[in-house]
Structures
1.
Amino acid sequence: MLEIQNLHVSIEEDGTEILKGLNLKVGKGEVHAIMGPNGSGKSTLASVLAGKDGYEITAGSVIFDGADLLEMEADLRAREGLFLAFQYPIELPGVSMANFLKQAVTSVREHQGKETLSAGDLLKLMKEKAALVHLDPSLKSRSVNEGFSGGEKKRNEIFQLAMLDPKFAILDETDSGLDIDALRIVADGVNSLRSPSRSFLVITHYQRLLDYIVPDFVHVLMNGRIVMTGGKELALELEEKGYDWIKDETALLA
Amino acid sequence: MSIVATEQNQSAIDRLSKQFDDLVGSKSDGQESSWIQSRRQAMQAFIQAGFPKKRSESYKYTPVSKWIEKHSHFANEAPSSLFAQSGPLPPLSAPDSKGKSGDSQSAGNRATKAASTSWKSKSGVEIHTQDGHISGSVVGNVPTGLTVCSLKEASLKHPQLFSAYLSKAVVLDRDPFAALATAFAEDGLFIHASESVVTDEVISIHHDGLRSESFVQPRVLIVAEKGASIQVVEHFPHLNAGRTFENRVAEIFVAAEARIDHVLMVERAEEALFVNSLFVYQGEKSYFRTNTITLGGGLVRHNLNFLPNAEECETHLHGLYVAKGYAHVDNHTLVDHAKPNCFSNEMFKGIVTDQATGVFNGKVLVRQDAQKTNAYQSSKCIVLDRGARTYAKPELEIYADDVKCSHGATTGELDEDAIFYLRARGISKDAAKMLLLEAFARDVVDLIAAEGVRNYLYDRLHHLLSVTK
Ligand SMILES: Nc1ncnc2c1ncn2[C@@H]1O[C@H](COP(=O)(O)OP(=O)(O)O)[C@@H](O)[C@H]1O
Ligand SMILES: [Mg+2]
């Protein structure tokens, strides 16, 4: 589904290299977790995959479902079925959820050759998907993320994921700032969206989320590189020993 | 170039001065009406001030002399045709209307209006104007106690009311254009709501008749007596009328406990010069709200002056402008708080693109007696093109010590993070920008009470912004 090879990424503005030869392969229907200390480049990876400006790709390639992802504009990636749940969702004052979702769903479905939804069907779909993450359907008349609580913003990201039905979803620290109840709601929502045809890349700083969204693989990102890969047990080990332990291990390797 | 402009401006002033004498006589015969007297005063004020010079502080960013030069034909028109009443008009002789003459002749010198550039209110009162004066009759059900007529008619039928209000709010040395319009306006529009007349019906004024290349100086007087409440919407639609020059002056009186909701929309053509001077005078516990929307015109200058001259007044002044091409839009506002316990809220938003310019100057003056004033002001401008320019100058001048005042002015591009968020949901770059611009502009339009007008503006904005990007 997604294959990243030797990806080198720098900040366009000052040339600082953040990702330094990252390799990652995610198969269809698989759930991969990426863990790593703050500042290790997790969000940078997510942003680059989603097509955000401001980064320079100095080497490497990303193949998404057989196509060169890095050649596509951000909106085309989304229409091709890539979804990013933002670590910090953006507030859009004056843009109603209803209008936003209508435009998003319409452009994605149109591109994928699916029939356009009638206003009634769209509303029905919104109701159904909002319920997945316990969001009040009255949110459709509110501005996107404006005045939403931290938890509502994160649930709103998963709600949008459900609406757009992507092949590949990246969740960037969707657990951060959530209390245990909200975490469970978000995780249940994500689990209900797991399917053999949808892959996930779950980025997290803590192991906690992975108790609920159980991954097939866990990778450790440090210093712009995947330094260790394992099964779900690796997350527990990290929780116990912290990231310093890996630092020492990889230092030995180097 | 600037010297040429100044000379041309001076000769224009001389010609205007002569025209004025031709109109009202060069000397007073001692028995003139107070109206004529006030016009003479205004002409004196104008001659003294002249057109704003290049160095003029209040026109620092607005090159009127260049535009006066460009529209120099205006002072050539014979006064008789300047103030022609409705009815068939003689063909224009003088100005070179550069290829536009064909159009204007076939239309009998009436400007042709682009289709669907107006809204239709289901009920309410509707007026159309030709060259600033009422044309045809007032349409709709005029509630008892509401008077809508020409100023001339008002001066004959309601002389007391007329002289009680006319020229009482305009400050002649505030702006030379206001003085000039006050001097020349032979007629105009009179709207008067008697005590306790409360109506939800919108009074719509469609300024949809304008001769090609014309220079018109109409005058408006709106009064809501104690406890009255009215809504007035004025629309200056896009007209194919070439280099028109409209210079209007409006006085609005909101008596104690009265309420006026006012909307003004300008969508004139790109060659049009449009100056609007508004003076609002408020009584105790009155409410006034205006939305000044500018979506078209070449050079548009709004001089908006508010004098809440009693306690517990509430004043809302909102504005929105979209400037494209070579348009230049200038909103120049003054809120003069003279009495205690008043509230004012000012919000202007602008979208400027291409080679256009947006200027905002907002002065809030809180005089010594005006304790417990709450005065807020914000100006936000989005610049879409490197060639576009904006200038914002908020001025707070506070002489009272127990007040709450704030102002903020921001200018910037569209938020890149917001655009990315939308694109990450599959929305194209253009559609994303469009969504954000519409959201930005809607903020102001949402504050308009009349639903038909709101919907009309949403449509117009959608159209304007979708061809902008
Ligand atoms: N746009 C940017 N400009 C400058 N530095 C950036 C930018 N984006 C990320 N960085 C830097 O890159 C590093 C990695 O950041 P990030 O990817 O957000 O890490 P993580 O998500 O793992 O906490 C940090 O040192 C951060 O300061
Ligand atoms: Mg991060």
Note: The radius of gyration of chain A is 18 Å.
2.
Amino acid sequence: MSEPIIEEHVPMVEYRHVHKHYGSLHVLNDINLTVEPGEVIVVIGPSGSGKSTLIRTANRLETIDAGEILIEGLPLPEEGKQLARVRAEVGMVFQSFNLFAHKTVLDNVIMGPVSVLGVNKKEAEEEAAALLRRVGVEEQAHKVPAQLSGGQQQRVAIARSLAMHPKVMLFDEPTSALDPEMINEVLDVMVELARGGMTMVVVTHEMNFAKRVSNRVLFMADGQIIEEGTPEQFFDNPQTDRARDFLESIKTH
Amino acid sequence: MSASAGISMRDALYEQPGPKMRRRIRIGTAIALVLVAIFVLGIIRQFYVTGQLDAKYWAFFLQPTTWTYLANGFWGTVKVSVVAGAISLALGLVFMLGRTSSFAWLRGLSRAFIDFFRGVPSLLLIYFFFLVIPQYGIKMSSFWMITLPVALSASGVLAEVFRAGVNAVPKGQTEAAISIGLSKMQTMFKIVLPQAIRFVIPTLISQLVIVVKDTTLAYVVSYPDMLQNARVLITNYDALVSTYFVVAIIYILLNYLINQASIAVSRRTGVKILRPA
Ligand SMILES: Nc1ncnc2c1ncn2[C@@H]1O[C@H](COP(=O)(O)OP(=O)(O)OP(=O)(O)O)[C@@H](O)[C@H]1O
Ligand SMILES: [Mg+2]
């Protein structure tokens, strides 16, 4: 924050020529991406194309080999307190929920505010209760995660992220570990978030979600973003053969 | 690996036995009991034949002084076991934290400690504390000369037990923790370690059995533990077999109790983790 960039326009997240390898596998190949504040981006693509890796680099759960990632115009710190601070502002929701198994639902949600932001416990609990109400699981507050259904757990995970007042939220296939009847209860929460102006990057194959709230769809294959457009453009009129083939393959499912 | 996994595994592997199976279990149990009875009778007969059942070998067990003496020894065993157990838990935790730290030198050092104390026989460590350390002018009571080596020797094993517990905590737990901005230390102490310890509590308790057994080396430093006091009784009454017999039963009971405790804890924590809504 050295220069006064106050009224100037700054993207929420920016990838500049980002590369990453796993051994000889080029899992991110020259990624350039700008996520504007309030934007909802859906990332779609075949298994192994690098979608998870892409969003996990944004809070440095994965490191990158070359290029640059900026959060609100500042390079992502490499370690220590600065990195932790950025991570606190970038929410992450996992496919497998990853709720803290030994903590109650309520304690899961207040963990970040109390331990990272230094909010006092009582206040944190009040806000957590409000968040749990918002995602519709207030009655489960004193249970441990194992006692909840998958859909409930994922909604708690979203509440846990929200408790940190994130500037942007990353979702890695948030509904693909869920039984079909629970998918919508999670998507509804995400739609509400999107409509409330949250900046979101969502890896998902839920076309309806993409069509309802996303501004842009990115199609990834072999570590590259090979097509990009509005949901209408992308789903109704894909430009590349890879995208067409892929859309065919998920339709027949 | 974990207590909860153990319980669910048992539920998964063994369905409720049907009527046929129950009959077979009853027959098997009966045969086993008969065999055990024959074995015990055989031992008693052997005792009788060799004259070990003569009153002179057993009469002193009717004197209260014999039991106060053994009880004093038992108390010595308990003291060494508890203190050595506590120290080894703390050290084991420290070694494990060192071994999983992000500093290579600390990892190497901790690993060397762990491997050393795991590999060296307790008896050698005791000799070291008994014979070598005093030469450097360090005065130590016999209590510490037995307690410290037993603790050190157990700490290497416990470090590995803790590490197994830490490894059993799913990676997603750590990822979720650092994603909300917890530091490495907070992640370890608030998220990973509490779950890891829950996984290994039954194992930790059963490791106490090894500590108890190691305390019987107290005779080397002449610390009056139960076995050491038993030896004195043996010399006084010239009653080797009977004394060892009684003392062995006490040790077996003690270790049985410890094992039962670990099973009880594993059941309880297992139920606690798995209790359905
Ligand atoms: N830690 C790792 N070590 C080596 N290879 C990895 C690692 N993580 C991922 N990969 C590989 O990198 C590639 C991209 O993985 P990534 O998880 O980003 O794909 P994805 O698009 O999210 O796929 P999916 O739809 O299956 O989740 C895959 O081929 C995967 O096998
Ligand atoms: Mg993935």
Note: Residues 8 and 270 of chain B are 8 Å apart (CA to CA).
